[in-house]
Amino acid sequence: MVGKTYQAMVVTEETDGSFSRVVKKQVMGALSEGEVLVKVQFSSLNYKDALSATGNRGVTKKYPHTPGVDAAGIVEESRVEGIVPGDSVIVTSYDLGMNTPGGYGGYVKVPASWVVPLPVGLTLKESMILGTAGFTAAMSVAALVNQVKPSAGDIVVTGATGGVGSIAVAILAQLGYSVTAVSGKADAGDFLKRLGAAHIIDRKSAVAGNEKPLLKTLWAGGIDAVGGEMLTAIIKATQPLGLVTCCGNVASPDLALNVFPFILRGVSLVGIDSQNCPIDYRKEIWRRLATDWKLTNLEEMSRQVSLEDLDVEIDLILAGKQKGRVVVNMQGQAE
User: Fold this and answer.
1) Could you write out the three-class secondary structure of the chain?
2) Which of 31, 108, 271, 278 has the most neighbouring CB atoms within 10 Å?
3) Which structural domain, as residue segments, surrounds residue 200?
4) Is residue 64 a part of any domain in this protein?
């Protein structure tokens, strides 16, 4: 294994302070220390990956670096009991793809505590159609369904064409909820309807009247993936005892809000942290995604690209021009 090489996307800081990314050979010594070596079959593209791939120090501190917060593949070496060569596994979150070489390489080496057995009912590819985005969406849905039933009214989902939003729309619709999808893409209607959205509104409509301390109640609950004024407006328009989840800040990390929705309507705001989710709960969420929450339209909401084609997709997600999920086929990248 010492002299073995593999293909990886490597992001490098240039002497002028800019960042470049190329696909090239890496030696096994470029990997981090870890107890489990996984030959990566599939990865996926998340907004955090795009930030890491463009030199965002809030995500990745040291370069050169291989991004990819998601990886699914086959165990090749293991130094721990319970994980053996040949096992199909999922590795997402924690520090993978941030400061630990990630899924855009033919191999990853990680602590055993990061490794989740591929649940029965999912293929490796399907697990990466979901990836961190789908896992985050499922955590959000899990928080919502504990308090809000389908009969309570509409659930609003923001950033609905993105990774988290699109999967949240699909899961909620499959569970019998009436979903209102918020999107800034004029051509997103057909895509969102195929996912199961009952209603579609644009961003301007969603935040209308946001200067008021409270808004007319519209939503039984909400799943927000963007933050900022969108999250503020959703909370202000949520009915008594409703629940809103928060998992993103692409619009803004700031929340300009008073306490009225919480003390006058009893609205709950639940933060979703998929990165450091405890392993037992992580396994339970993946089990649900493979069984009673498994989506029938997974393939329809994704596109598959090679590692060599990923560069273009990174630019698209940063420009807000992507719909659904991008799966990276890493087969053949290990040599």
Assistant:
1) CCCCEEEEEEEEECCCCCEEEEEEEEEHHHCCCCCEEEEEEEEECCHHHHHHCCCCCCCCCCCCECCCCEEEEEEEEECCCCCCCCCEEEEECCCECCCECCCCECEEEECHHHEEECCCCCCHHHHHHHHHHHHHHHHHHHHHHCCCCHHHCCEEECCCCCHHHHHHHHHHHHCCCCEEEECCCCCCHHHHHHHCCCEEECHHHHHCCCCCCCCCCCEEEEEECCEHHHHHHHHHCEEEEEEEEECCCCCECCCCCCCHHHHCCCCEEEECCCCCCCHHHHHHHHHHHHCCCCCCCCHHHEEEEEHHHHHHHHHHHHCCCCCCEEEEECCCCEC
2) 108
3) 132-271
4) yes
